[in-house]
Design brief:
Chain lengths: 335, 537
């Protein structure tokens, strides 16, 4: 009897140890990879470790940073949004066209935010109201946005200029690009929202156990809807930055952002299964991806391989996450 | 009868703190029908699942046909000739009956399905249970519960079965359907197969089995060849000695009642004058003729303040469903509910909580815990609206609330920031109880509050629940654990197949009386207990 108990307890202890190691790996993965890639690129390219290059990295990823921040809320609640890229392209077309027609910048900015919010409400209504799995719903809306952009574009590239000077990559506050401050403000605000408000607590509760959250009186639908609206507004803002950065809106504008935004969130360590994560982790993941994109080019690797590297890093992050879930599930069962 | 078919020697199985089986020895001869009996949690299903390859025993041995038998998967057990029909069966609801019947053992030629052959065999199988052949094409999910059950039995019989295990097979079958099942069982046993039943239905025992084996708290406590109710009930309960003591302390003398109620009225100044005045006779929750088709029927129930009202019933009796209907998470076909003397319309868990009705769900893991979060975050979850200023969490307030409740409930934790998963099951449950208490409810519905919790923590939770009742909270305690109700409840209502079969107070709450009510065998106990009439099903 007692022998059996001891034998039964052994794998549980082993699992607990393995689990804590994996949790560490999950936390440390991103910082370690970041250090490794920075060292690697510094060795490979003399242009990498220069202040001008860091400014480039920052201005080139500010739009992505805004999207990834909003997406983090959705992912913590075990949802996803794969329509952000084409939403940026679509809104970017309106922004570029509005500026080309000489509309007041404040109007253009407002329109961008409003379209973003409408898109968020639309995605939210499909996933929350109609209970369509978020990946399916946003895959559908993504196709719609893509087609709309294609129809609006109508074989005519629209040249874009910044909505406001401070919304462009050129503006500086001190030595830093102004957009860096914008990103910092957004991340700080969302971090406070998640860590210091009832809303934020509800987000984690829903991601952790939606049934328990409902029984504890949390308004599930409202919380999820608000997250889509926040993401939508950030997508609208990101579209203003994006169109100014790229300088021209085409049929495929924004399409690369979807993948990169998801990658930033996941590589940062926010669990795709919900319940844990933070925008600070996303910021870490974002810096990693931004540096990778930049460094690969500087090191002279054909940009073809860019996608492969990002893909491998995502798989690595997600598989550690999967292992954690499997072992913690096994451990929970044995309790 | 011929030799032993299936044999278990000193089988033990432990789940965390719960000893589900303790050195159980059991044997089944060829051609024999054995009924396995016992309260909920006595270990019946666990023993059957060891045979079926769902669980593996921690120690002890099992032999089948004289050779050691240690199935690692249910599939292996089926291949060895042990077929099981579970109480809550798993099937493929989108696939047809035919596909369900032959899942995993399709007839085929080089990978091509031999549908014609399966159809022929399928028709013959359904015919044995007198089911029409046209069912074969229907999707499984469209069938009635009874039909699904019969199809699964047909599926189990289809295999080259040596041992058939049926977990409460007749609970949803009509008498004629049950009779058909027994005919099939007779046919199987005459060919030398063995059959194990798990059942709570006393009225069918004689028709069902040749031998009755009783388990209690994971131990085999007796067996008999005669289906004598009183003997069996005595074996299933078996706490005669302890019952007297526990019953004595739990049965609050009626004289104390008004005293307790006055204390409540003083303590709760939030109650409006109209209800406070009427408190002595006005229960906090009054349910009248509540009915939800197919689940419970015509239920009358009062839950008074400062008392613990117990609700006992076997699995499937409709206890949890009744609680969920009060919350509004499940519907209510008709009936009316009064809460604090006013008509009350269930509108979901959130609305209920806002009005002071808190529900502790049955399944701590899937319905209660936020696994990724800390002890403090788990505790304050339901009280968050009280802890905010324009949506911003007042962390000082939150911390003091959490500290206060951790202290009051004596939660053993390394701190409020510890992960909830680092706590023992009992302490997790205390946190969930504190979560509800932090919302200052008037009515607390506890659904199996101590399931799977170690004995020491269980006693602490019992003490906490009693303290809460003394503070004036009305408590509805749903439990399938007899000793819990005997020690805690002031009143016990027994549910059987969706109906209240008896209402026991004070000294009337004895193990035998509760079991009689819950198993629907009131006829011979009616003189001892005041009962509501039991309507024939």
């Amino acid at each position: 009897m007692s022998a059996a108990t001891v034998a039964g307890a052994d794998p549980i202890i082993r699992d607990a140890r393995l689990l804590s190691i994996l949790r560490w790996a999950q936390q440390l993965l991103m910082p370690v990879l970041l250090v490794v890639e920075i060292v690697l690129f510094t060795i490979l390219s003399p242009h990498f470790m220069t202040s001008q290059n860091w400014v480039n990295i920052a201005t080139n990823s500010a739009d992505l940073a805004l999207i990834a921040a909003g997406l983090t809320l959705i992912v913590i609640m075990a949802g996803i949004d794969v329509s952000t890229g084409f939403a940026v392209g679509l809104i970017g077309w309106f922004v570029a066209t509005g500026m080309a027609q000489g509309r007041p910048p404040i109007l253009v900015l407002t329109v961008a935010l409003v379209i973003g919010i409408v898109i968020g409400l639309f995605n939210g209504a499909l996933t929350v109201g109609l209970s369509i799995p978020s990946i399916v719903a946003t895959l559908g809306t993504s196709a719609i946005f893509q087609t709309l952009l294609f129809a609006l574009w109508n074989s005519t590239d629209v040249f874009a200029r910044p909505v406001f000077p401070w919304l462009s990559g050129q503006a500086r506050i001190g030595a830093l690009p102004a957009v860096v401050f914008l990103v910092v403000v957004v991340y700080a605000a969302l971090h406070l929202l998640l860590s210091r408000t009832t809303y934020g607590r509800s987000v984690y509760a829903i991601g952790s156990n939606v049934e328990a959250a409902a029984l504890a009186g949390i308004k599930i639908a409202r919380v999820r809807m608000i997250a889509y609206v926040i993401l939508g507004a950030l997508v609208g803002l990101a579209a203003c930055l994006y169109s100014a950065r790229i300088g021209v809106v085409q049929a495929s504008s924004g399409s690369d952002l979807t993948m990169l935004a998801i990658a930033s969130v996941v590589v940062g360590g926010t669990s795709v299964l919900g319940g844990e994560g933070s925008v600070l982790r996303t910021l870490g993941g974002l810096i990693f991806i931004a540096v990778l994109r930049n460094g690969v080019v500087l090191a002279g690797v054909p940009s073809l391989w860019n996608g492969v590297m990002i893909g491998l890093v995502i798989l690595l992050a997600v598989s550690i996450n999967g292992l954690v879930v499997r072992i913690s599930r096994r451990q929970r069962r044995s309790l | 009868m011929n030799g032993t078919l299936l044999r278990a020697d000193n089988v033990s199985k432990r789940f965390g703190a719960t000893q589900a089986l303790a050195e159980v020895s059991f044997s089944l001869a060829a051609g024999e029908r054995v009924a396995i009996m016992g309260e909920n949690g006595a270990g019946k299903s666990t023993l059957m699942k060891v045979f079926a390859g769902v669980h593996s025993a921690d120690s002890g041995s099992v032999t089948l046909d004289g050779t050691p038998f240690e199935p690692k998967t249910p599939y292996e057990a089926i291949l060895s000739g042990i077929s099981t029909v579970y109480q809550e069966p798993a099937f493929f609801s989108h696939l047809s009956v035919l596909e369900n019947l032959f899942m995993g053992r399709q007839r085929h030629q080089l990978g091509w399905l031999d549908t014609a052959e399966m159809r022929r065999e399928g028709e013959a199988l359904l015919d044995r249970l007198a089911l029409p052949a046209r069912l074969l094409r229907r999707p499984m999910g469209e069938l009635s519960l009874a039909e699904q059950q019969l199809v699964l039995i047909a599926r189990a019989v289809a295999a080259d079965v040596k041992v058939l295990i049926l977990d409460e097979p007749t609970s949803i079958l009509t008498d004629t359907e049950s009779e058909r099942l027994f005919a099939v069982v007779d046919e199987l046993t005459s060919r030398g197969a063995g059959v194990c039943f798990i059942t709570h239905r006393f009225d069918e025992l004689e028709r069902m089995a040749d031998r009755f084996v009783v388990l209690r708290d994971g131990r085999l406590v007796g067996e008999t060849a005669t289906a004598d109710r009183d003997t069996l009930l005595a074996m299933m309960g078996g706490r005669a000695g302890r019952t007297a003591g526990a019953g004595g302390t739990s049965a609050v003398p009626v004289a104390d009642a008004s005293d307790a109620d006055t204390r409540v009225a003083e303590a709760s100044d939030t109650v409006s004058t109209s209800t406070a005045g009427a408190q002595d006779d006005e229960p906090v929750l009054r349910i009248r003729s509540a009915t939800l088709a197919g689940t419970f029927e015509d239920i009358d129930l009062d839950v008074p303040a400062a008392r613990i009202t117990g609700l006992y019933g076997l699995v499937g009796a409709g206890r949890t469903e009744l609680a969920l209907s009060v919350l509004g998470e499940l519907g209510l076909d008709h009936g009316n509910i009064q809460y604090l003397g006013r008509p009350y319309r269930p509108a979901g868990a959130r609305a209920a909580l806002a009005q002071g009705i808190a529900y502790l769900p049955e399944d701590r893991k899937t319905q209660g815990l936020l696994h990724h979060m800390t002890v403090g975050e788990n505790l304050s979850l339901a009280a968050l609206p009280k802890l905010t200023n324009l949506g911003v969490l007042r962390r000082g307030l939150e911390r003091s609330l959490v500290d206060r409740w951790i202290d009051r409930m004596r939660v053993k934790t390394s701190g409020t920031g510890a992960a909830i998963t680092s706590l023992s099951g009992g302490n997790q449950q205390k946190v969930l109880l504190a979560r509800l208490m932090a919302t200052e409810p008037r009515l607390l519905i506890l659904d199996e509050p101590t399931r799977g919790i170690d004995v020491a923590t269980k006693a602490e939770i019992h003490r906490d629940v009693r303290v809460l009742a003394e503070q004036g909270i009305a408590i509805l305690l749903i439990s399938s654990e007899m000793s819990e109700l005997l020690t805690l409840a002031d009143t016990v209502h027994t549910l059987h197949e969706g109906q209240v079969t008896s209402t026991l107070r004070g000294a009337q709450i004895t193990e035998a009386a509760v079991l009689r009510g819950a198993t629907g065998t009131l006829a011979d106990a009616a003189s001892a207990t005041p009962t509501r009439t039991e309507t024939p099903s």
